[in-house]
Write a structure and sequence with these properties.
Elements: H1 8-24, H2 45-74, H3 79-105, H4 114-130, H5 133-157, H6 163-185, H7 195-210
Helix pairs in contact: 1-2, 2-3, 2-4, 2-5, 2-7, 3-6, 4-5, 5-6
Length: 213
């Protein structure tokens, strides 16, 4: 059986297809949404807009996660690390699909700036990979730690009765913690100052903008 080796053009086209799917497509989750079967809560207009703003942030975060993982996988040195990154990206696709579905249920939309977020995150992921697999995996650890913290904040900020959004974020939080632990076990190193602080600042900017735009 002959296994075709992908050419640079093949890989470029596949990358473009993944980007379009993350930004403007309808990604298919491998796992059912944690919110399936939960009755929609009664939300007033202000609560609905607030929940939608929070879920738009999380959707944008998952667009960024797709780009980061694919950027890192594209330039990973070791084949097993590349496969690990692609597997994590597949789980992040579940998160992306769940958040997209929840936005539709809240009569809202994704961030209009998702193409910009994707391009920037892909470049950051590729740059992290160029620094070597230990640094790239360390970047995963720090990213997932910060995501886990912000998900905890959103769980506090959601309208109390919005159980559908809450269970989605809780499952995402569980997955992000597991991704951080797995990357650390594979040899991810602690990122030097000021990289974690810069990552936090850029995340704050993204969240402030994506909540509204």
């Amino acid at each position: 059986m002959n296994i075709r080796t992908l050419s640079p053009l093949d890989r470029l086209l596949a990358g473009c297809e993944r980007a379009l799917e993350a930004i403007a497509g309808s990604p298919q989750a491998h796992r059912p949404s944690p919110a399936a079967g939960i009755v929609e809560a009664e939300l007033d207009e202000a609560e609905r807009r607030h929940a939608a703003g929070l879920m738009r942030i999380n959707h944008t975060g998952e667009v960024c996660a797709q780009a980061l993982y694919f950027g890192q996988a594209a330039l990973a040195r070791a084949a097993d690390n590349r496969e690990h990154l692609l597997h994590a990206a597949a789980e992040e696709t579940d998160h992306l699909a769940w958040c997209a579905q929840r936005l539709q249920q809240l009569d809202s939309r994704p961030s209009l700036l998702n193409p910009l977020w994707y391009a920037g995150s892909y470049a950051i992921g590729a740059a992290a990979a160029l620094a070597g697999d230990p640094v790239s995996l360390g970047f995963v650890v720090e990213t997932e730690r910060q995501v886990e913290t912000h998900l905890a904040e959103h769980l506090e900020k959601l309208p109390a009765q919005d159980e559908r959004s809450r269970v989605v974020l809780k499952q995402m939080q569980i997955d992000e913690i597991r991704h951080a632990q797995a990357a650390q076990q594979r040899g991810g190193v602690e990122l030097p100052f000021p990289l974690p602080q810069l990552m936090h600042v850029s995340s704050m900017v993204m969240k402030a903008v994506a909540y509204r735009v």
